[in-house]
Amino acid sequence: MTEQSYLPPTALPSNGSRKKLIAVIVIIAVIVAVVVGVLFLTKGGSSSLSPTGTPTPIPSVTQSPSPTQTPTEVANVSVLSFSHYYDDSGYFNVVGEVKNNLGTNVKDVEIVVTFYDSSGTVIVADYTNTEIDILKPNQKSPFKLTGYLDNSLASYSLDVQYNTTQDQPFEGLTIVSQTASIDPEGLHNVVGEVKNNGASEATYVIVVGIYYDSAGKVIGISFTYTNPATINAGETSSFALTSYPLAITPARYELQVQGQ
Q1: What stretch of H or E contains 26?
Q2: FRET partner for 82 with CA separation of 20 to 30 A, picked from 72, 112, 125, 174?
């Protein structure tokens, strides 16, 4: 008879023993991770997260630059006068008035303002349109350009661009009454009425105010719509115009009216 040796199988741990073993291993791993983390931070380890960006500081606006003003006439549409000021929000404003010296109507009148620093380098150029859309021969219109500029501003120049046109503006709108006053905040206010003497309905009717100093220079402008902004033929509509936010006491003012 052949003899065979017999070895009993190795006993496997019970389910309860396995769970205890796993729990012990997890606890040891957590302890090791905590110890390593503490040592890492103690030694000045750095995070892999990107640092929060530092915002670029916005320069404070000093309302002191007194830029040199250089108007430029183009053909026969000329700048009659202009001036500038900083408003309460720190924005730089250029206001003025142009005149159509041509024998035909012009439209799309743009005033291009180029700003320079003290070395004559262009900072930025911007443009605005006249408040009146179509200018007949010898007609004037104000304009206003507003922008935010830093203290490098030393001078600016004006240039005028336009297109001649056969288009005609709406005819027949007349300001039939107006009363001006200065309120306690120093704002210039005008209330009045506009009458449509034309043969058809006028829409989007606006009243434009131009403020002048004693030398006849434009020092501010404003506009408002009539209420209602549509005026039937033969009817009137009221308006309330204010210089807000500009506190101003002009030597004189003029009103213009336009509709479509």
Answers
A1: helix 15-42
A2: 174
- Gap between the Cα atoms of 243 and 223, Å rounded: 8
Token duo for residue 186: 């120093």
C-alpha 216/C-alpha 252 separation (Å) is: 8
The total number of structural domains in the chain stands at 2
Identify the domain boundary among 143, 165, 187: 165
pLDDT of residue 27: 52
**Nearest Cα to Cα of residue 95 among 109, 85, 110:** 85
Altogether, the residues listed in the chain come to a count of 260
pLDDT at 24 > cutoff 80 = no
Give pLDDT tens digits for 225-243.
Answer: 999 999 999 999 999 999 9
Identity of the amino acid at 174: T
Check residue 18 and give its pLDDT.
42
Using CA atoms, how far apart are residues 84 and 218, in angstroms rounded to an integer?
9
Q: Which two tokens stand for residue 8?
A: 């009993």
| Domain extent at residue 96 | 68-165
| Claim to verify: residue 183 and residue 141 sit in the same structural domain | no
